[in-house]
Amino acid sequence: MIEVSPEIQLGDDEVQVRAVRASGPGGQHVNKVSTAIELRFDVRGSPSLTPAVQARLEKLAGSRLTLEGVIVLVAQARRSQEMNRQEAYERLFELIRKAAEPPPPPRKKTRPTYASKLRRVEGKVKRGNVKAMRGRPTGED
Description:
Layout: E1 2-3, E2 9-10, E3 15-20, H1 28-32, E4 36-42, H2 51-61, E5 70-75, H3 81-100, H4 114-132
Helix pairs in contact: 2-3
């Protein structure tokens, strides 16, 4: 079992990890060693997640989610396969933890009070008077 959070544990068979060759520059090392990690997690087929968490996770995954409901994460920033594996797992766990948080309650609309409306209008009138004093003197004194 892989512990994501105190409430969520994934089975070892739920996450598929395979080593692939990293793209980009790197010389001989990158051309002969498979250091990049491709991690696959089937969201819809996971018995460890509740339907609500699955739905939020699919939304959070965005373009990393395939049409079949599989999250694909590729980690290739590090030179070591083990470090890339840890990074890929941590990114998956972070996504699952974020999806496990319940969404905030919807905001309730409130109306401004009568006093706050009066204060707002008074402020506008005051500001208008200040601006009106900026014009050229008319000489009508």
